């Protein structure tokens, strides 16, 4: 059978299983835009604070293009390091209370670099059951043995750590990308200290600083972050001790062997970080939290999943919302487990009260409950 024929059969199977995907143009700057000629409001972006369209962020990106051009032209260890990369790394380290930070081209690449570098053959990686694909793939690239513990189950993790005689690395998201729930970070930190494990926390979807991993004496910690969600730019970063960041700089293949982050992206992220750390950032987070509480009270993140079950049901629900001017694509396997397909609603400080009311009206009309 030819490769062409095999691809056709595989594509047909995806369609039959309601798992077919296509890129759909969304012509937008901010939550309101056009899909197939229809004006819609997106509740699917990870631009949680709306900083991708902030005037200061846009101006910083424009200025960086004028000064350095559109690309870095080489890897960081060759000629790809610009002053803006170093300035952003210093600002990230200061904002997140770590010794040093290191930029990667994406958050995905950051997780691959961390886990494949530190997951040596004398290490056991303990990974949460619902960790992001980038963490899963990083574990696969590592030479370490990987053990998966039940989602947010610190008791099971403790028993696994007790039974392990190798060096230990625990990796988790702080806020989980598909469910919007939070890891028990304080308990995980205490376990890491007790069992001399390195704790790796992926902070990609954590908007609120009070939900970050606590600073505890004796904790060996690496923080992985992204510049493309809360900061509305592009890229990823890792923060930690001087020695760990130096090791990643020299050994993480997804850092060493790729072109450096575009200067405009780094400049945009730095400007967004400055907004985030200022009073305006506090106000944006307060606004976002108020919107979250209106949609789902006692929820801790802007990710609000509505699980509908089958892949076909999720597609129908997404289509019904789109007909009402609300853009929330269906999330289906392999992103989530079978029979847990969902609408993954994400809120942003760029949404206003009228947009949220429109969403809630559309959900009610589609007979989908939050």
What is the helix/strand order? HEEEHHHEHEHEHEHEEEHHHHEHEEEH
CATH architecture of the largest domain: 3-Layer(aba) Sandwich
CATH superfamily of the largest domain: Type I PLP-dependent aspartate aminotransferase-like (Major domain)
Gross morphology: globular
Query: How big is the Rg?
Result: 21 Å
Tell me the name of the CATH class of the largest domain.
Alpha Beta
What is the strand content? 15-25%
- Number of DSSP helical runs: 14
User: What's the mean pLDDT score?
Assistant: 96
Percent of residues in helices:
40-55%
Please mark out the parts with pLDDT under 50 across 5 or more consecutive residues, or reply none. none
Report the structural category: alpha/beta
Main pleated sheet: 7 strands, mixed
Give the strand line-up of the largest sheet.
Answer: 4-10-9-8-7-5-6
CATH topology of the largest domain: Aspartate Aminotransferase, domain 2
Q: What is the β-strand count?
A: 14
End-to-end span in angstroms? 47 Å
- Supply the number of structural domains: 2
Describe what you observe in this structure.
The chain is an alpha/beta fold and 370 residues long. It has two domains: 94 residues, Alpha-Beta Complex (Aspartate Aminotransferase, domain 1); 224 residues, Aspartate Aminotransferase, domain 2, CATH 3.40.640.10. 43% of the residues lie in helices and 19% in strands. The chain has 14 helices and 14 strands. A seven-stranded mixed β-sheet has the order 4-10-9-8-7-5-6, with helices on both faces. Helix 2 runs antiparallel to helix 11. The radius of gyration is 21 Å and the shape is globular. It starts with a helix and ends in a 5-residue tail after the last helix.
């Amino acid at each position: 059978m030819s490769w062409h024929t095999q691809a056709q059969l595989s594509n047909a199977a995806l369609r039959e299983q309601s798992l077919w995907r296509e890129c759909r143009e969304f012509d937008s700057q901010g939550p309101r835009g056009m899909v197939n000629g229809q004006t819609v409001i997106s509740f699917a972006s990870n631009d949680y604070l709306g900083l991708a369209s902030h005037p200061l962020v846009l101006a910083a990106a424009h200025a960086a293009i004028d000064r350095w051009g559109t690309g870095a032209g080489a890897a960081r260890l060759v000629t790809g390091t610009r002053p803006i990369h170093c300035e952003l790394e210093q600002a990230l380290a200061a904002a997140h209370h770590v010794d040093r930070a290191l930029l990667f081209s994406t958050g995905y690449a950051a997780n691959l670099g961390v886990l494949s570098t530190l997951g040596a053959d004398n290490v056991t990686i303990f990974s949460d059951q619902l960790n992001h694909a980038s963490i899963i793939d990083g574990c696969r690239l590592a030479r370490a043995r990987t053990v998966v513990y039940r989602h947010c189950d610190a008791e099971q993790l403790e028993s696994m750590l007790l039974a392990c005689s190798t060096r230990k690395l625990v990796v988790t998201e702080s806020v989980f990308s598909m469910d919007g729930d939070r890891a028990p970070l304080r308990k995980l930190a205490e376990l890491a200290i007790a069992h001399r494990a390195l704790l790796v926390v992926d902070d990609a979807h954590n908007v609120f600083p009070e939900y970050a991993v606590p600073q505890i004496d004796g904790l060996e910690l690496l923080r992985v972050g992204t510049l493309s969600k809360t900061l509305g730019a592009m890229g990823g970063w890792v923060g930690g001790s001087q020695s760990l960041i130096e090791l990643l700089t020299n050994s993480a293949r997804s850092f060493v062997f790729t072109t450096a982050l575009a200067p405009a992206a780094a400049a945009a992220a730095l400007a967004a970080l400055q907004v985030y750390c200022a009073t305006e950032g506090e106000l944006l987070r307060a606004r976002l939290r108020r919107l979250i509480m209106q949609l789902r009270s006692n929820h801790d993140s802007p990710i609000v999943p509505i699980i509908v079950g089958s892949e076909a049901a999720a597609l129908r629900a997404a289509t019904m919302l789109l007909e009402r001017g609300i853009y929330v694509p269906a999330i289906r396997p392999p992103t989530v487990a079978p029979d847990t397909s969902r609408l993954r609603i994400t809120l942003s400080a760029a949404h206003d009260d009228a947009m949220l009311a429109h969403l809630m009206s559309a959900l009610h009309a589609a007979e989908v409950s939050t």
